[in-house]
Amino acid sequence: MREQNREMAEGILFTDFYQLTMSQVYFRLGVHERTVQFDHFFRRYPDYGNHQAGYCINAGMETLVEWMEGVRFGGPQLDYLRSLEDTGGRALFAADFLDWLARCGDFGALHIAAIPEGRVVHPNVPLTAVQGPLAMAQIIETALLNILNYQTLIATKAARIFESGLGQPMLEFGLRRAQGGGGNGGTRAALIGGAGFSSNTGMSAVMGVAPKGTHAHSLVQLCMALGIGEEGAFEAYADTYPDDTTLLVDTIDTLESGVPNAIRVFEKLRRKGRRPVGIRLDSGDQAFLAIQAAKMLDEAGFEDTSIVLSSDLDELVIWQILTQIAQEAPRYGLDADKIIKRLVYGVGTRLITSWGEPALGGVYKLVAVQDGGAWESAIKISETPAKTPNPGIKRAWRLYDQRGKATADLLTLSDEAPGVGQGMILRHPSDHTKFRRLREGEISRVEPLHADVIGAGGRTQAVPSLEEMRAQRARDVELLDPGIRRLVNPHIYHVSLSEKLWDLKQELIAEARGNLRNEV
Amino acid sequence: MREQNREMAEGILFTDFYQLTMSQVYFRLGVHERTVQFDHFFRRYPDYGNHQAGYCINAGMETLVEWMEGVRFGGPQLDYLRSLEDTGGRALFAADFLDWLARCGDFGALHIAAIPEGRVVHPNVPLTAVQGPLAMAQIIETALLNILNYQTLIATKAARIFESGLGQPMLEFGLRRAQGGGGNGGTRAALIGGAGFSSNTGMSAVMGVAPKGTHAHSLVQLCMALGIGEEGAFEAYADTYPDDTTLLVDTIDTLESGVPNAIRVFEKLRRKGRRPVGIRLDSGDQAFLAIQAAKMLDEAGFEDTSIVLSSDLDELVIWQILTQIAQEAPRYGLDADKIIKRLVYGVGTRLITSWGEPALGGVYKLVAVQDGGAWESAIKISETPAKTPNPGIKRAWRLYDQRGKATADLLTLSDEAPGVGQGMILRHPSDHTKFRRLREGEISRVEPLHADVIGAGGRTQAVPSLEEMRAQRARDVELLDPGIRRLVNPHIYHVSLSEKLWDLKQELIAEARGNLRNEV
Fold first, then answer.
1. A60, A181, A364, B284 — which has fewest CB within 10 A?
2. Residue A460: which residues within 8 A CB-CB, separation 6 or more?
3. In a domain? residue B357
């Protein structure tokens, strides 16, 4: 995009127009600098149709913070807003409001507390809490949802696909099927969520991870057109990368042409004292072809070479492939586990788009407004009780049981602090008939989930490294009950309210409904 | 993103790593500057599960060309590539190859011919043909697919949603559910495909379209917390935008609170001589609520106000809503058509993600290689015959029947030119039993589909305006048979090969298979 266009499209105007029209209303009401809190949370796990997530992996905050730090209402944005007219032909935005934006139109006054990236997260628990002047806390909504929803969606999908592969390496290959430059955020999230590496060269550079890739069908096609054929293509590749030779074997016919040619080239490498890395299968019956290719490679003495699979994979397809290998390999006299241990998964479209559920419905809701130093809780009623947000300034905790497994996330008022070993009532967020009584001693550990990200003085913590986020994700997934990790029909993890928070919520609902009855 | 990171992640390294490793192999073979042609096409229309597209709308070229013009292998990219090591610890990219990239590593030598943006397009017809030096034509693949696939996917979805709304205005509201900054391309494509306006402020500025939006639930919530309630919120909005007042009426209770409060505020506007614009419904039974709200608005004398619907809409949901309104409105003594004519659709998640099929499987295949001035056709065989690309340098034509409707797209060799009125055989691209015989006089018009976009000297045509692209889309859709436009189970549009092209394809397949047989 041309520079002046980029300034408009990727700067602070990367927002829904109503954030700006609302902000001017706040300005007219004189409340644009009132301190408020918005909570960002999602209401349900991704449901991919025939399989469902039982947990999500939080991601995106560092991308958001970088964006926030780099944008503000400057000359070009203000000139544009000044040019807009209402239906009556008058300026839509008044000079005094634009002056305020020119002076105060950046995100420097916002405080953000959030659950760290890489952590396991659940519905209705605020992933992010934004506090600050109303107008700017409103204007950030669109970018915040855009960045955090997408990266959390993809980190979650990556974690599932990685789990389905039983710990074998998983590579992210989806850039060509992503939404323009947005795919870079997807690569980042995939690397946090479970992908070991990515084919996305630029984003791998940014993330400090070696980019991965082999070759495409076009290399083989080209060599066929040049008259040196598939074997010639493989040989040229092996000559160039003698220590990194992975060959794509399905351009003509996998078992009749690709694998035999690859083996011939591998033999030449072996004679030169080199170790071939592997082959890639990109079409056909992946389990059957993996077994047959493994057999041919074994017979040629290449038992250590990898087999990269890369044909529309996702967690269910990988599960199916592994099941089929387990069933069929013994018929060919092969050890299924040995085949599975040499597999590598190249995952493209279905990871980068979160196929089946391509958006996380994360929302950003006003939960409190300061009034003379005290917080007034805000509510939005919904005809679907589960959609009524949990009001007020809250804290979020993770409770671990005596096995050390995470057993519930608990939302409390800000002055509550649940203690280890203490008995308590956990209320369902919207169903008054559902609650759970924790006996004394049932809880072995209580962990606060939020950490400050930025305060008035800027960042309040160092940027976490990719390795830290990955380690956090691995630890958190390990602490889930196996039922929650199930790929299909997972158990429901408990997200609960403290009794005090439950009471506040009921009070506010009654009040809003009461006002309604009086009005009608 | 920080500037140095942006240079890496959004510049020429916005590509799959194998494009670079392959290019070095081409360099070693001495064919990196050989002139080749790649075709970009998709193999099937989007299938959204319970509904399917019968045509696509082409989009994205201008975004791609801007990207191509702005990137090259410069210092930071070359330094990065120089730093990469192979498994043996040696430099992965050799100095001579990097020197070549430093000298020739931009897209200035590529020629592109394409079907213009906004045109109706069909499977297997090259949307884009890229000619130029092999290495750079290879390296552009990822960005080309990323940009063109996504925008074509979204322009297609927008066209369908617009069609389902029977010509009523459709607004694109999806930025918060898009993939990061990639959503900007989605906004652009939606505006080409059928959205009248967008809430995406920055991208609306770039596209020269007024951004649209009203207010969110938070405005009402805030005013409730301030003690001035929903009516106070509406009044503040109307005071600020007396000629542009559209009010969101579902924060508390649509029919009990929202609509009555909106009507009270509309009455005040009327007394001041202003015309209220409308209301927005964002939850619940949209058809039922639209009927009831219309009745209430009519009774208060606001028959001209719009009703904006915006709750997880897509083409099927809109179709369902319109059907329900047609059935139920008469029961309440209302004219269904009058209600339908006041509807406006705000479409978010399901448009910007192309819900149901969130990626277009467009591919980029090598079809010809120059050898001493003559073109050698290239082929890739697939076990699925429909996946074998059509080889060689081709031309694409649209044939119109005596009604003036488009009846088939025809691919021919580059020296063929089908004439009006001429009889001919249209071959199915992969099934040898299927062909269609056009009688003399059956075809009333033959239209070439490709136009040059960039040649050696840069752009060969002016950038088309949004209005031109939209007009093209409207004309093309109008020229489709109604069966092709059907939202569910559309007729299959014919895409055919000339006999000469069919013969070439069979010859190349036989040759590749023949070589295979000889080898085995």
1. B284
2. A452, A453, A454
3. no
